[in-house]
Amino acid sequence: MTSQILAGLNPPQQAAVQAIDGPVLIFAGAGSGKTRVLTHRIAYMIHKHNILPSSILAVTFTNKAAGELRQRVNNMVGQGVGYVNVGTFHSICSRILRAEASSIGYNQNFTIYDDSDGQRVVKDILNTMQLSTDYYKPAGVFYQIKAAKNKMQTPSEMAELAMSARDEKIAEIYLSYESTLKANNAMDFDDLLSKPLEVFENNPAILRFYQNKFKYILVDEYQDTNLAQFKFVEYLSKESKNICVVGDDDQSIYGWRGADISNIIDFQQIFPTGQVFKLEQNYRSTETIIKAANAVVSKNVYRADKVLWTESGKGAPITVLHGETETGEGQAILHAIHDQRNNGIELSSMAVLYRTNAQSRALEDVMRRNAVPYQIVGGTKFYDRKEIKDILAYFRLILNPADSVALLRIINVPSRKIGKTTVERLVKFALSKDKQLYSILNNIDEIGLNSGVEKRINDFYQFIQKYIDLISELSLYHWAIAIIDELGFIESFRAEDTPDAISRIDNINELLAALDEYEKNNENATLAQYMEEVSLLSDIDQFNDEAHKVTLMTLHAAKGLEFDIVFLAGMEQGLFPLERGDSTEDMEEERRLFYVGLTRAKRVAYLTYAMRRTRFGEFMINTPSIFIGEIPFEYLNFPQKEKVGSNRSEKKMSSTKRHKTKPQVRTFAKKSKSLFGEPEVKPKSGEYEIGQEVMHAFFGKGTIINVSGGGPEARLTVVFTGSTKKLVAKFANLKILD
DNA sequence: CTGCTGCGAATTTTT
DNA sequence: TTCGCAGCAG
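ok -> structure tokens follow
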């Protein structure tokens, strides 16, 4: 069995699998078989060293990675030997915290606050402190608090380090933020990581228990760990010394979130007895892609010495494409997708990656209008939609009545005629009596509100109480149906009867279906477990690689994935690398991000950019990304021959005769034929006039109320049901209705 | 208390 | 461009 475990691994992989005791660092370059080594290592531990699966703890960053690892381990070691503990940092910490909550003065039903909850808290604090939200912008203040928490800086430490009156105030807000969360029995994402350390520090016996429970620690994506995460695994492995970390400093892309790349680079200083293995053979990509990626990332100064190599063939050159605007760029991608599909590549093996979520809109537009099946990972998350968050706020309040953020969100949703003034009085009263908001709802007569309002508040209180009681009586699914039904959300949306309202109904039904499924998949499923899972969900967890669709997502989301064909879109100075502080660290991180993106490609990579891009309705002129220039010319291919980088040549790109002289140059402005079946609406040539009725692929039927210019460049103002849009005729694909 | 309007700010990446 | 919120009329 053990020889089987080692078979098929290359020598460094074998060595990494066999070094079970003591600290171990495995440098695992992109595509070097990292997950394979991890699974084989676990199998080896269990079968060769008879290590109890339950004494192994493997930690990842995303649920998706955890799920994959868990599944592969189970396939390899077989069921019946017990389970290896696999989970994300956040879920494992959360599990520990639920068990040990009382030791740090929390209740085990604590709520997990996401960033919008946190920002809400900051906003409320600014209000009660009567600080100007112009000078203290909630988003900015919250960001500063988070940065401090990332570094595990306490409010008093922050106050000591403050360089200005403003910083001192922010430290004060931070202090208040912390006490609010505590009072609400809530933790944010940073607390989830740092509170377990508090538990360990205050209770040596508890620490010993977990050290004993998890004798072998494995950490995936170690380059992305922050201080708290480092301390967490350090504490747990202090006695056993068995800590194995796997990562690649070149793929460290979460510095902005507090990830500390020196955790991996300085591993040997931190663990002097540690062994280091390097996996440098890439099994994923062509030589062209590997060489190009190496060339770029080796411009970084702060990195460990290693070189990725491959035995696979040279492969296709990296193709650079551009469009006049972001739509033109999208169309360049569209045509390349079409070509690749004609070469027999599945749509699901292609991905378009971009730096910022905002870029997805234009790309999505092009895909949709040309009937290309696509899926977007991330962006507006399902659980972030208003109607869903409202319903979840009910669930949250029911689980944790101390959660005043949830309470304030829903006390008047749907409308109960409990207005702003009343709410303010409730909050003030609770504050003055030092009581939880929810608890004063029960003795509402003490406040001296008028009886009408009193009655309405009492109804709300009784409503919540009713469903607190009912939760043990009904299945999760039926309970949720009952509460949603009584709230009347669906009815009122149905009455609205707008496309927006209908999609909200769909979303609610989807939520119910998800609950139903959750319950079917998990015996004794509880609402608390479901909410925990939902809170810790990430964008990438929803990614489905089975779908016959092109995938659109951010570069960050793509980490750990691979595709035959990869497009890196928005390759422009200022956008990628994204400009902000412009420090060298930031620049190096952008470069690593490019490295991550490029190495997602197995066979072909495209780099695309737009000459001009709309931002807040304004045009921005861009020059191509410096990263293109950092790739040796021999690996690149420019099919759109005319002088890349010059704005002037672009004008010609949209002229219709281009493709006659140079077949490989496309005219993105013209799209008479659909590449992927029927587009939703066929364009019809002709001049547009004010008053015409037109049909648009997304917006539906509309009326032209203004035309400026003529021909394909004409700008049209069109009133659709519910919105007015300004469109450029040649891109809008409008069908004139008679 | 509700709902409308008009203005200003926002876009990095995410557990 | 879109979103959210402050401010005001009903």
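Residues 643-686 of chain A have pLDDT under 50 and may be disordered.
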